[in-house]
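Folding problem:
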Amino acid sequence: MMNKLVCLLLAVFSFTSAAQPPRKAAIASAHFLATEAGHEILAKGGNAFDAAVAVSAVLSVVEPQSSGLGGGGFYLLHRASDGKQVMLDAREEAPQAAHRDMYLDTNGQVVRDWLLNGPKAAGIPGLPAGLVHLNRHYGRLSLAEDLAPAIRIAEQGFPAYPRYVEAIKRKIDVIRRYPASQKAFLINGRVPKVGDIIRRPDLAKTLKAIARKGRAGFYQGPVARKLVKASRKHGGIWTREDLKKYQVKERAPIITTYGGKTLVTAPPPSSGGIALATMLNILSAWDLKKMAKTDPAKRVHLTVEAMRRAYRDRSVYLGDPDFVDIPVKRLIHPYYADGLRASIRDDKAMPSNLLPGLKHAPQGNHTTHFSIIDKEGNLVSATLTVNTSLASGFVAAGTGVLFNNEMDDFSAKPGQPNAYGLIGGEANAIAPGKRPLSSMTPTFVMGPDDVAVLGTPGGSRIITMVLLGILDFYDGHGPASWVSLPRYHHQYLPDAIYLEPNALNTDIVKQLEQRGHRVVRMSHPWGFMNATWWDKHSGQTKAASDPRWTTGKGEVK
């Protein structure tokens, strides 16, 4: 197994040497201002990693419902000069005062308000440290240069757009609990209207502190004191020591093969890479491209059964690898997939309760993703989050920093679902300094002819969206198709296939139901995929943003 892995790594690391370099850089993000900031940095001589800092920082200003300095994320990197591939783990972690029962009432029941709203819901942020680490170890420009677009936009303002306004409306009751949150998100006490100019002067000051002093500008000094003071004043448990000790971790990606291409994807504490490897290993026994034409209902059925088994493993085995011994090699091995596949029937769904899993388990677009390819062939696939929309709703006075509510990504009570309906076990129980399990799945697909860079927000549905995007790539389609593809999802529990509006036609749905699947038609779309593509023969690049939303931008320059 190790020799095989070494061969895979060498193949991946050497692939750029014979490739035609990208003729133009490609960036796709969830907001046009972030995409433009990335290209601005590239035009100044920065590389993809500098651009990633700029895109992340701008998104923290213009898309607070999805990411921000008070959150975290994963950066999957490929460096063209030496083939290095790594995932920067800037995931939030539990404060030292956290404990496994901290969100249970006297009857042992989870109090959802404690877990989702206010500063007690927040883990220690990782994004500021991630930006500094990315700039220092991989970028070419100064940190101040990379952060300049975000500071400018925070000071000068940006127009409010429908998703931003709707997020504030949904969170208004929590926002009104905290004066600093009202200052950050309301205009004269009212919800902004589409087109209103939004300025974030306190957030600009925090970005400037980071630009001047690096990680110390956030995790120590005046900003850190304000964060801790605000947290503890309103019932949080952060300490200055919690902030000071936070560190970005470099982790080896999950690497697997499918259909003659190599996938490089997120390792734990993301569950995405292992789940993707499991699903693709299961599906490798069938010609899905042919099946899409001859028997599309069967293709959906088999794909759903692969999803079901991968999400079952997620609930049982996965957590923070620094706290839990995860059998990664076994879970991503083709022989393990052979065993999972053996229980799949072409003509019948297997109920989730027949799969061995969690005992006592009961019978759910607030993250962001961007993809970058620069002219040197450097790649970035980054997924950032604050967890649910507008996170905890709590802004620390004087900082502009919105606290995440990532503590909900732990198993507050093993066997109970989180905000996205995901079930977790002991492996993902709360512990001091531990990082919660994530579904974020930044991914590269590298073949002899082309390269895909993709990922998406979407909570528990992230992994299946990335899977469907990858399968569409293998079907021969480009990034505009991957990001717009109708989506379906299964996550083990609840035991149902969830469909976007008009995702599958009536005949396919009928055939799925005849196999025993419960099909739930949703009234709204999900996800916000952003993807880039590079043709290694011609050097052509493409970028695409999800057409479900109007603020995203995929751009080639």
Observations:
- The first strand starts at residue 26 and ends at 29.
- The domain at 251-365+440-556 is CATH 1.10.246.130 (Serum Albumin; Chain A, Domain 1).
